[in-house]
Amino acid sequence: MSFPTILVTGGAGYIGSHACKALKNNGFTPITYDSLVTGNAEAVKWGPLEQGDIRDRDRLKAVFAQYKPAAVMHFAALIQVGESVSAPALYYDNNVYGSYCLLEEARAAGVKQMVFSSTAAVYGIPQTNLITEDHPKTPINPYGNTKLAMENMIRDYAAAYGINYAILRYFNAAGADAEGDLGTAYKVYTHLVPLMMQAADGEIPEMKIFGNDYPTADGTAMRDFIHVTDLVDAHVLALKHMQADKGNLTLNLGTNKATSILEMLSAAKDVLGKPVPASMFPRRAGDPPVLAADASAARATLGWTPHHSDIRNILATAWSWQHKLRAHGRAGALSLTRFKEAS
Ligand SMILES: NC(=O)c1ccc[n+]([C@@H]2O[C@H](COP(=O)([O-])OP(=O)(O)OC[C@H]3O[C@@H](n4cnc5c(N)ncnc54)[C@H](O)[C@@H]3O)[C@@H](O)[C@H]2O)c1
């Protein structure tokens, strides 16, 4: 098979754009299908960009007909937990109805393989320190509910219509492309690592730490940070697994290890060469003390090993990306159309 095309929904976003680069490096041609609601056209460098919304079935139909993709990688979603609480209709429409439209058009086009971005948010409050894939699925916010609904829809389609799937549940995605081609580029950041970078550079007054009374060694919450390059490597392996007809997958992607917020701050001080201003605030409702993947199934099934997820490497790649953006006068200025309108 030569240069099979892969339709990448959300390919202009943070993780999707890194996936496009990994696909290209592995002999695939990524076709980005993205509404640019939070993504950036500038991040689409490894194949064509087809601007469109996954809820636009006519547009999807035309793109499937034009490129005849061998598979779909489905990253497109709205991803902000807080916004999903205040605007659940937006999330069900964009994420769940959008995924239904995508599945229907993929089915009509005869596309049988789908890799899907799921999340640790499907588990809700963890009952164990390391979460395995069979942990109960009880999301605690609309974002997690939409992701679980999308997972279930894909499994139901697989059972009835014979598609193959790889559902990949990420823990905390972080870091940036080591060659400096890609990274996060939003106007408003909500994830820990970019917020740390902004606080270190004085773009925001400080980083807020929510809770210092958790039952952890230093009292701050602990998370499993997985480098975006490791994440997308797993996607390529999952795609190859499906192409070899080795069956459907539901896998956690993480490092089997949690790092506390204070540990991150301490590592950041070394890597960035300056302290990150931070203040303590009360816990937020629904934030679990520890969230960490048991990712041994991904290792065993895909032969996947996260090589880039050392915390210092995550911080170093994110830091050099932020400085590259800044050097181009683009810090915080790339995209997030919705936030542009709001600000
Ligand atoms: N970032 C994380 O830590 C994390 C963790 C777990 C799971 N995920 C999942 O990974 C995926 C990618 O997340 P990300 O961090 O790259 O977010 P992102 O916001 O950078 O990327 C999402 C992309 O999807 C596009 N999009 C959204 N709705 C669309 C629609 N209706 N039609 C077409 N395009 C649309 C956006 O424009 C954007 O380019 C999401 O599905 C998210 O749920 C992310």
Radius of gyration of CA atoms, rounded to a whole number:
19 Å
Uncertain stretches = 331-343
> Helix/strand-derived class?
alpha/beta
Shape label: globular
Average residue pLDDT:
92
Bound molecules: nicotinamide-adenine-dinucleotide
Name of the CATH class of the largest domain: Alpha Beta
SS field, number of helical segments: 11
Structure description:
The chain folds into 2 domains: 200 residues, 3-Layer(aba) Sandwich (Rossmann fold); 103 residues, Alpha-Beta Complex (UDP-galactose 4-epimerase, domain 1), CATH 3.90.25. The C terminus is likely disordered. Strand 1, helix 1 and strand 2 form a beta-alpha-beta unit. Helix content is 40%, strand content 18%. By secondary structure, the protein is an alpha/beta fold. The longest helix is centred in the first third of the chain and has 21 residues. The structure holds nicotinamide-adenine-dinucleotide. Nicotinamide-adenine-dinucleotide (NAD) binds next to helix 1, helix 4, strand 5 and strand 8.
